[in-house]
Design brief:
Distance between the termini: 14 Å
Shape: globular
Order of helices and strands: EEHEHEHEH
Radius of gyration: 16 Å
Strand order of the largest sheet: 1-4-3-2-5
Length: about 170
């Protein structure tokens, strides 16, 4: 049986032509992240299904709440990169070709670990900047932090709106 839910809220760059400051509900992931430690059978099988890593009812509820709150919200595919550097324009081109909507350096390992333990997951990203090569300007940490600060109240409102729906599911 699936266990309680995990909400993975994150800041990400937009790999497609969407403005920064919007919210993105993650529906799948691209990347070579994996569990590299010996398996502990108490937590789950060594090989487990990642077909629906992000729980569809949580995604649907989040999209509905975002629309109710009149947020700029989409669903999309997240691509993990190693970091700690921002991506190159060639990497973004490759990710877009593969169907990615977002790129970032974290979260996927936590989602994989949660799914290994059969925990339902919701991933929500705040798109903090346009990806490399989309705009004719460099990516800066200041831009990422400024956008996060600018939209934090709407991001928090979305989390407040969807949390009771997830809590009702896991109670």
């Amino acid at each position: 049986a699936e266990r309680a839910g995990l909400v993975a809220a994150l800041l990400r760059c937009g790999a497609k032509l969407r403005k920064s400051g919007g919210e993105e509900v993650v529906d799948s992931k691209l990347g070579l992240a994996a569990l590299f430690t010996p398996n502990d059978e108490r937590f789950g099988l060594r090989f487990f299904d990642m077909t629906a890593a992000y729980h569809k009812p949580y995604r649907d509820a989040t999209l509905a709440e975002g629309r109710r709150l009149k947020l700029d919200i989409y669903d999309g595919v997240y691509c993990i990169l190693n970091g700690p550097s921002y991506e190159t324009s060639a990497e973004i081109l490759a990710m877009r070709t593969l169907g990615a909507d977002l790129a970032g350096m974290s979260t996927v390992p936590e989602v994989i670990a949660a799914r290994h333990m059969n925990i339902k997951v919701l991933g929500i990203s705040c798109v903090t900047n346009m990806a490399a090569g989309i705009l004719d300007q460099p990516i800066t940490q200041e831009e990422v932090l400024e956008t996060g600060e600018r939209v934090k109240s709407q991001f928090a409102a979305l989390l407040r709106a969807v949390t009771p729906r997830i809590a009702a599911d896991v109670a």
